[in-house]
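Support reply, case 0932

Customer input (verbatim):
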Amino acid sequence: MLKCMDNYNQPGMIRIAKAGEEHAQLVSELGKKTFWESHGDSGSREDIQYYTETQYGIESIRKKLTDSTNNFHIIFYKDEPAGFSNIIFDAALSAITQKNVTELDKLYLLKSFHGLQLGLALINYNIEVSKNNDQSGMWLYVWKQNTTAITFYKKMGFEITGNHDFIISATRSNPNHLMLLKY
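Our regenerated output:
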């Protein structure tokens, strides 16, 4: 049974809530905008447009939100949606020999909310949920040119353990680091 902290609150400031199917439109909008902000220059306009439409289109998000393997959360700052995350428990990966490891599939914040420690709150929340579900670590892919994210994850204790080509479209992939945090 999923052990989840349904809501994380700092009165008046930060709230983290589990996303359900009723949040499909919001997650879709956040996904498209945050991906453009963080990866918009990682490929051609057409490639990024293709990726955001296929991965963050409303029907794609609705399907992901109803898939029980996904654990989406939305972070709010002063009741404004600021970003979202998704984790997947027991996400085996051949490059990781460790068992019971969570994949941090997504963690994105709108640029207008950077600098408010929201990324820290959201990653810590996801790590706590992961630990509460008997996981032994967390892994993720991060674009090699996103030095801000790489620095952030290293400060959190993640280590670069490998590489991965992240597929954007049929003609574009981006080099990513595989990073792992052991608990």
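We compared this against your earlier run and they match. Two observations from our side: Residues 1-6 have pLDDT under 50 and may be disordered. The longest helix spans residues 24-39. Please reopen the case if you see a mismatch on your end.
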